[in-house]
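dude i think i finally got it to work??
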Amino acid sequence: MRWPRPKSLNSLLLTGFALVSVPLLLAVVIGATKVRDLARQSETLVRTGVETTHYSQQLFQQIAPMERSAKLFQVLNDPALLQVYREGRERFLVTLENIEAVSDDPIRRKHLQALRSALRRADAGIMSSRPQAPEAVASAVEAFDAMWAAAFELSAATNEQVESGLSSLQNATAETQRYLFWQSAAVILLTALLVTLFTFVLLRPIRQIDAAINLLGKGTFSKPIAVRGPTDLENLGRQLEWLRVRLLELAQERNRFLRHMSHELKTPLASIREGTELLMDGAVGELDSAQREVTAILRENGIKLQQLIENLLSFSAWQARHSGLEISQFRLRPLIKSTLETHQLTLLAQRVHLDLKVQDIKLQADRAKLKLILDNLLSNALKYSPRGGTIYIHAHTEQDMLVLDVGDTGPGISKEERGAIFEAFYSGRAPTAGHLKGTGIGLSVVNEFVQAHGGTIEIVDGVFPGAHFRIRLPLAPRSETEPA
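look at this
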């Protein structure tokens, strides 16, 4: 059984808002109910206490004239005093009824019964006999002592009940506070869980879209894009997948063109190189110094052209395959020496000086790709270095990183060009010392291969007079790979 889930982003947001609001509203309702109960309880306690205290005071005020009229009647035997007693008696009974109406409490009922019993004794001695016997009147007067005692006990019981009610109210208030505290804690926890859940549900497709856009921005088109979530975000994911497929097709078309063009260029170039080598070897006769110099220039530029074509092929293959690295262990010095030997003729022709400070570093990397990195950086330095200039190649380690510096004494790289210098097919505007303008992919290939090793390349200022590239590569791959 699949649980129903919101289909769109709006419905997901509304559902999340509703589910987060429900426990909050429920907590508010429960809290309001608790507070209302406490208010009612306190109102009842105050009203009962005030009314009972008021009526108790009336009892004391009514017993005194009744007792006074009874005692005067005992002495004077004046019938008018009986009327005063009757009027006080009626008011006294009304007060007793009012006390009973305030609260039907067993203890209060007991004291009210004692008051009525004492009143009946007084009535029996004053109002029942005709004429009233002195003994009966004296007994009636004595009944007021019991009435006073019952009234005092009723007042004390009332005060005690008020105190007990206040204590119960305080306990109820403290209990309500504890309940509301734990309820608030539970609501906050539940709300946090719901917010976390819906944040995860909402952010997961957004993160997938963000990751897909990053991959497209980096030129990685091999991984299909799949977004799971609300319908509108899934539709956006399908649009990104269509864009990925389209970009992949365009990249394949471009790489196919580059490969075909490169191969077409290599065929006549091979004939040119072969003819140049035959001339240099004296196959058609010994060359004089001027002819040999011209032939050397032809061979040198043929080598440069071949290198540019090889760069095009390497770039095309890398873009098409994004193949993995072939990791092996080697030393850096022999690799740099081998690279320099490839450019030895150009170095001599341009009378370029070398400033080598390379530590004896052992690292694990793709040897072929690192050689191509060095070869392109050295070619770039030769291209922009003036005749008789200096090329700097320094290498040392920092913790687990290789730091490789390649600099020259050329015009350097302007601030405006640095944002595009590593883009494919971008050629700098600075004048070159060589006779052949580059294709603008050398530094792009360098950047691709450096990133493939998990490293970085940056342009540094203030160390060397011209351009200065600094490469940082891990001495070993981040995720160990067995050498091929």
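Confidence is low (pLDDT under 50) at residues 431-438, 480-484.
im so relieved honestly
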